[in-house]
Amino acid sequence: MADSGSEEIAVIGNTDLTPSESENNLKNTMVEKGTSLLKMMEISVAEAEKRTGKNAVNMQETYTVYLIETRPVDAASEGTNPVPDSLWRRYSEFELLRNYLLVTYPFSVVPPLPEKRAEFVWHKLSADNMDPDFVERRRVGLENFLLRVASHPDLSSDKIFYSFLTEENGWKETVFETGFQAKADSRLKALNATFRVKNPDKRFAEMKHYGDELQSVISQLLRVRARAADRLYGVYKVHGNYGRVFSEWSAIEKEMGDGLQSAGHHMDAYAASVDDILEEEEHYADQLKEYLFYADALRAVCRKHELTQYELEMAAQDLTSKKQQREELATGTIRTFSLKGMTSKLFGQETPEQREAKVKMLETQIEEGEELVKERNTECEEFVKSAWVDIERFKEQKDHDLREALISYAIMQISMCKKGIQVWNNAKECFSKM
Amino acid sequence: MSGFVVDSTVSSGNSSVAIPTDISGQILDLDEDDDLEVFSKDTTVTDGSSFNASMQTSPASMINQYKFEEDAEDTKDIFVTVDNPESHVTAIETYITYRVVTKTTRSEFDSSEFEVRRRYQDFLWLKGRLEEAHPTLIVHPLPEKFVVKGMVERFNEDFIETRRRALHRFLNKIAEHPIFSSSEDFKIFLTAAPGELTSYKKQGPGFLSRMGETVKAVAAAVRGVRNRPQEFTEMQEYVEAFSQKISSLDKVTQRIVREQKEYLEELKECGPTYALWSQSEEELAEPLKDVAGCVDRCCKETEEQVKNLNDNLIPVLHEYALCTDTLKMRDDLDKAEDRLEWANNALKSDWTRWQKDMRTDLRSAFVDTAERNVNYYEKCLAVWESFLHSQRTDAEGNGNVDFS
Question: What positions does the domain PX occupy (chain B) (predicted)?
Fold first, then answer.
């Protein structure tokens, strides 16, 4: 069997790292870098099950639930291995948790959920949400999500998150009681509105731009990869026809029969091998997808910075205009247009009492305005500080994870090549016996 | 029109050879490393003393003729190569000629080395003559006149090269064939100067094709005989089945090539996408660029592999698919048991020979393909392993990750 010179490069060592092993590497990294939560408990999404029930509009629906298992770390290491605590959750509950985190920790790059619907699929792979392969990949994605949150310095200590993992009943109510929904709605409205910020922090503007680029290039890569996977599937499967024809041909030959027959079997094996190859590649695609969605989370943080900055600028602008109005009233010069001012000009001057009252009102407003500006300024500065810390953390994580992903991709290609070498060497032997 | 066609390209160290059209009394220039006696060329066509199948007319005498040695290849005494395609432009047309070099020790040849230029038409003519003269024997097919696949232009480099190889195989099959290689037409083809060949062709059907007519007449006379030898029937069945299988293999291989080409189209976009991504990154820029490079290199290897299939496996499969058309045509030659026993023997020997040849050709074509595929995967493997190596030494250098 051909061993293509891996002895020469002794440093490589184990090139047979499976994708699940490399995923474990990721998990281990998260645990090692460890938050206090992860030091306390082991978290996993162990199973997925189909359920049927009545939905909000009293119609039958089928949905999938996922089993979240938690286990205290000490017990596992002591080897007593007790039964883990567990509860079932639906995808929509994960979504609720994430929305809560998004609103409550606006300066954090919140880990994304695995995709709701299968996208960037190559055609042999099912786009059906109920497909067992899709469900399995989603289970892995959800576990990854929980571990990401659990390893985040800020998010991991959140109580709602903790109860998500540990309290099956009444969790939804608890979340709604926080009132995050109201904040969410107003935030959402504000984020969707177009506004221009005069002095955005340059770093955030750059980050947002990077987020855009990352999203665009990963989408493109996923699309291209899916199409290539499709084609590769075709190449391998057509070789199955060799298997069939060789087999038929061997039936009419005398001396060539055996060689042809066994060569045919190898062709069948070759054709079949593509299924595993492409399944492994889906893991890689999933890793890319996670960062595709992370790009969105990153952009969300940048948008939130813009929003806080904008609100600060609006408050400052309002304050300035109020101060100017006061000055005009005091000196009698009109520099700022106001309807009241114009009408009073047209219909006669106002009385000194009226003017007094106006000035008093303005003074109050200016006082309030200054408070508001101070508030918002602090808000802005704190946001910038916290957000930038998390962005730096995210950058490091991203660089590490994606590099690992590229390495695991190389390992996959190596494995595919090794299989190909083996099959064709076997086939060659059979052919030479023809 | 100039009487000289000069071989202006240099190939494998041969010196330039000028072949004049009128060679009577002149000496041919040969390879400098050959220590040979050079004879002046006698342009008479027939030579009564040589073993020449086309001379006999009676079926009885043919019986003796067709009993030949099966293992003649041990004493191969004629070597033919086809190379050096050259384009010729005249007022009427543009065409390609190929250099045909013959080296032989056979006595019926006046010299031991010949070099001529022939065009596709000439090969077609030769094939036609052989088929006419020996309707019961199997003549190896020629590549088709035009490639029907649409895109290939007639004088495209790949097309010319593929054709050259097929023409080379064709002539070698003839040269290896115990009967065909003794054909006068074959000899003329290999040795005659262009003008000579043209006039020989013009000779008209002549008694060579009259011989063919004789055979056909005899064959027609025994048509419709009820008893067919069991073997013959088996052969026809085999031919039918084999023909299907070979056709299928030809189609499957062509489909594989199509799929590979489409895969290549998509793969070609992957590398640039990774490269584009690397432009937005800092730490990741290096590994992304490396991956882009790896993908691009694999693309090149895939292109090579597709070309190999096209150039090597497909032509061979195609030729055998064409062969079977010839084989099937012989259905109208029913053989009686007592009459034309010569034809039966000849048929059987030729058939056995052909089967052996087929086995050798197809075996080596498939072994070759398998080898190339192994090669392809080995090259891609090396590409990715070197990437992995660079990543791991990088990481260990930076003290980032522990790969133990």
Answer: 76-197
